[in-house]
Amino acid sequence: MIALGPLAFAAPLALLGLLALPLLFMVLRATPPSPSNVVFAPIRLLRQIARTPETPQTTPLWLIVLRLVLAALLVIALARPVWRPDTEAGADLPVLVVLDSGWSSASNWRAMTGEARSALERASASGRDAALILTAQANRSEEASELRFAPARESLARLAAVEPQAWAHDRGLAAERAETLFSDERAPDRVRTLWISDGIESDGSRTLSQALSARGPLIVSVPEQGNEPVALRPAEANAEGFSVTLVRPPGAPARSVEVVAVADAGQALARGEARFEDGADTASFSARVPLDLRNRLRLIRVESESSAGATQLTDDSWQRPRVGLIEPAGGEQDQPLLSDLHYAGEALAPHAEVLRSPLDALLEAEPSVLVMVDAAREDSERVSAFVEAGGVLLRFAGPRLATRGDTLLPVALRTGGRLFGGAMAWDNPQRLDHFTEDSPFAGLTLPEDVSVSRQVLAEPGPALDARVWARLEDGTPLVTAERRGEGWIVLFHVTAGPAWSDLPLSGLYPAMLRRVLSLAGRSAAGAPSQGAWQIDRALDGLGRLGEPQGRTHPIPAAAFSEAEPGPHTPPGLWQLGAASAALNVADDATELVRLPRDLPGAVVTTREGGGEIRLTGLLLTLAALLLVTDMLIALALTGRLRPARSGLGALAMAVVLLPAGAFDARAQDAAISDAEAMDRALEVRFGYVQTGNAEIDRMSRAGLTGLGQTIFNRTAIEPGEPRAIQIESDPILFYPMIYWPVTRDAEALSPNASARIEAYLQSGGLVIFDTRDAGLSGLGGTPHPGLVRILDSIDIPPLARITPDHVLGRTFYLLDDFPGRYGGGNVWVEADPDGSSRDGTSGVIIGGADWASAWATGPDGQPLAPVEGGDRQRELAHRTGVNFAMYALTGNYKADQVHIPAILDRLGQD
């Protein structure tokens, strides 16, 4: 191999073929093109003309240059050129690729696997053996059976099926695998190892580096600063919403990331930006979310990361009920910090939204739980109706209740109460007895110093035992409860403050009240202490919530708080009876530290996204195109191909000769050629409006490409490749449907563009305006500035939210909702399409579901963007796209389908 700067040749002797190009030039110059046969009618007259000598015409110079270029490409391709060749030490040794495959690799997964693939392809091209070790493996026994040096194509096949895992990598275990690999008698003595790292330090890094460098050169590839992963610590709820902390390795440049909070139905509840300052390792994000919406929150994630560590799932412990403390009608007599309401409120505040007001104001706030202390007794029908309707009434005893009971009690009470240690003493102060297994307080630890000095007593009866949740050591009921209608009444037979017992001064008190809150729904349920948790839905390495894969193990309830994500206990939502708990990758102590650069025996390099590139295939492809071009030109020059009579020859030559950029340049011109007009008129193509944002335009193209494949697979329509549109200059009448992603900085249209869009709508075209903000702004809420500017430029009829019987939900699939990447948003169409000249169809569809991202697929057919509702919502998004396309192509031909129920009903009556 010889190198000329960044370009090298694996077979340099083949370049001697370039010396033959001058000889080839002379041969081509002297060889004329084949003569063409021309039929001329007056042949007799021509025979009388004296013959003159004919001199052959030489080959045109431009054709000679084309053929010389073709020959030069073939010669250079045979020399096997390589761009940025791998010239590191040991480049001719067998290859061992070690790939970090934990959750922290997900954000750079494409670049990391691309580098691994490039290394294995180089080994395969040179006939070297290779092996692949993953630092996070879902099935350890399966990898152990495949751990050997073999032809590189086997490792390439394994690499194609590898995905990042949802747990941290185990580099200590990877070192053990490397030792096992090297101990095989068939293993080579020396290997060249490429460790493709995510750049994050973990236990076992130095051990792995020592094990790998002992058998040959070790190259460690790490991402550039600023490209390392970001993790999301558990969110903290507050009175206004929630706050969350993001972490990354320190020392990186300033960076902003987008954080989104998603409800259980897939809607985005909050979205905003968190910013890492220059060199900072943490960033904060907070959002204002009302309690009712916060209780529906299912997950919080970093939008641009797509990893399990950048996703935080919420569970039952996250949701907070609204609790109302009933204030006495005449105010409290005790000091504020000594009152019963103060103790009850402080014990409930960490687990609920606590309101403190008179009863009337509390009932208007629709609480889940009402707390009634002795000084605030209310025996009203409103409280009874609240309980009957499903509310929880939490009551505490006191002197008033000891004197006279009422109807809002779970058990009948004796008059006078019970006093320990006084003139009416029955016994000494009593301690609490252990909670029984069927008690909601089961599993709570009893403090040694809690005792009861006074309480109200329950009347004995056959139903008493079934209503007792807690007792004293002598068997006297301390907490009783009864189901009343759809709700509960719970009575603590002591005061809410420390007047009658030490219970309000202990940590057991708030724990018991939290268990009572569970009666208001699953939201406040404490973690069960018995049984075992089973996986319900699992996170994958890319942060997507779905069905668990592989074999999982149950987690004992007592050990769940100590469980760590792994192959058999993946992060996700776990179920135990009616309770739900989240196992997340990151916790409050999670920190990300950059991998050290002084690993034993390693050379650490920064991954810049470019390894060596072999150019042979590219050059041979260009040579083949030039060969086809030469054939077409030769046929045209000999008269066998007549472009003047048929546009096929000219079109074929244009496809071969013009680069892809020529089509983009031609798309900017208002006037188009006849060939392109025929192409657009005879093939169904969808268009998308270019916004100037490369990422949005890329996703729009990928979305319409994915939608076109779905339409091809499910309908009789065969759409072509989508086209980009410059709305100010390009002709748009050829496209039945145009997807228009609207950015917030979109500008108003020029009068000429507005007139062309109005003509397009009147001629039957359909424009889909997508604000891509999950409906957080738009026609029904905060105005979207870009959409307002565009719509103000166009004469569009009045709009209205789409109705359930609209024909758009019947054109192909029966749909009641039209989700995209986001779900649950409003969709707007013309309010009265029957009054237009479009035969009862709407020319515009406006929404914010980000449909293109849900449709978008890559070259391998895999989705490019996550969807909030998972695979089911993605399928509904594709059905939505099919309905949009059928609506654009067929109009209202299925309008009568909305009347089918009435028609069938009439037929059944005949």
UniProtKB/TrEMBL annotation:
Keywords: Membrane, Transmembrane, Transmembrane helix. It comes from the Bacteria. It holds the Pfam family BatA. The chain crosses the membrane at residues 61-79, 617-638, 644-663. Residues 685-889 form the DUF4159 domain. The keyword Membrane applies. CDD domains: A4_beta-galactosidase_middle_domain (cd03143). Residues 8-81 form the Aerotolerance regulator N-terminal domain. This is DUF4159 domain-containing protein. It comes from Marinicauda pacifica.
